[in-house]
Amino acid sequence: MALTFIEKEGDLFTCSNTASLAHCVSEDLIMGKGIAVEFKRRFGQVEELRKQKSTVGQFAVLQDGERYIYYLVTKPKYDKKPSEVNVKYCLREMRDHILQHGVKELCMPRIGCGLDELDWKKVKEIIKTVFQGCPITVTIYHQAPENNSSQCFTEVDGDLFNCPSTWSMAHGVGEDLVMRKGIAETFLKRFGQLDLLNSQKATVGQCAVLKDQSRYIYYMIIKKLCNHKIQESSLRQALLFMRDHCKIHGVKQLAMPKIGTGYNSLEWDKVRRLINDVFAQTDIHVTVYNYVK
Questions:
Q1: Do the two domains 4-142 and 153-291 of this chain adopt the same fold?
Q2: What is the pLDDT, as a whole number, of residue 292?
Q3: 3-class DSSP state for residue 263?
Q4: Are the beta carbons of 250 and 282 closer than 8 angstroms?
Q5: Which residue has the higher pLDDT, 262 or 256?
């Protein structure tokens, strides 16, 4: 039996639940955007994947019943791009595992060709070459892109203050600019200039802004006083205000915590939708950091 190679349009996750799956990830296993988010949501076990210590050109793998879920490590960090060579190395490693474990059916997206921007025609030929002569059916799922904002939004685990020093940053505060706890206290310690912030007299739904070399530090005024709860409408107004400032000043990368979900207790799913809605159809990429102790 030789390779059977199939391409079809549709949702990868509608394939047979006995078919093994594969997709591309970075060595840091962030999985904060694209189809990787759905793999992370469905199969979890990120710590198990990390324990395997797979490096670029290798893969990590989970067993899901009788099938395998392959995580092809094609690049070192989530914000880098893979090379065709590293995709080929990953595929070869996965192929050997597949042959050793008797996998007969493998389904995957157009690996490396979504957010990673490789040429699908070239990647397809690499897949066919690697699996040539193997007794397996490889099915490639291609889902027509929807008109949404998922590509402008990334979620990562880590310390917000480890973001690149050229990225602008944002967080939420009260109109009184009292920053005595949580991440607001860290912003105050790092960037100071409280008198300058107060002099801007920003009100709820606006932002006070500091310039930090080539980037901006946004203080989103999302409530009247520091001990008040916020309303989604106030958060939306502040996001819109900040978005417009970003567009005027050419900001392309913006980092923030899960605003409104700490002491303010908003539901993150609702806040996520707000951010997506506000930054849709812009060239501003928002990275949200989830601090993990």
A1: yes
A2: 53
A3: coil
A4: no
A5: 256
- Higher confidence at residue 158 or residue 41? 41
Would you call 277 a catalytic residue per the annotation?
A: no
Give the range among 22-26, 93-97, 160-164, 225-229 with minimum mean pLDDT: 225-229
* CATH code 3.40.220.10 for 153-291: yes
Selected catalytic residue, list 28, 116, 223, 258: 116
Angle between helices 84-100 and 120-130 (to 10 degrees): 30
Whole-number Å distance between alpha carbons of 221 and 206:
6
**What is the rounded CA–CA span in Å between residue 152 and residue 15?**
28
CA distance 288 to 254: 9
Element (H, E) at 52: none
Q: 136: how many CB neighbours lie within 10 A of its CB?
A: 20
Region 225-240 average pLDDT: 85
Domain boundaries, the chain: 4-142, 153-291
Whole-number pLDDT of residue 147: 45
Cβ–Cβ < 8 Å for 255, 160: yes
Give yes or no: 116 in active site: yes
Task: Write down the catalytic residue from 75, 128, 157, 277.
Answer: 75
> Domain spanning 4-142: which superfamily?
Leucine Aminopeptidase, subunit E, domain 1 (3.40.220.10)
The tokens 């490693």 sit on which residue? 93
pLDDT digits (tens, 9 = 90+) for 137-150: 999 988 754 444 44
Instruction: Give the distance from CA 158 to its chain's centroid.
Output: 12
Cα–Cα distances (Å) from 268 to 22, 35, 48, 99, in that order, read 29, 20, 25, 42
Percent of the chain scoring above 70 in pLDDT? 94
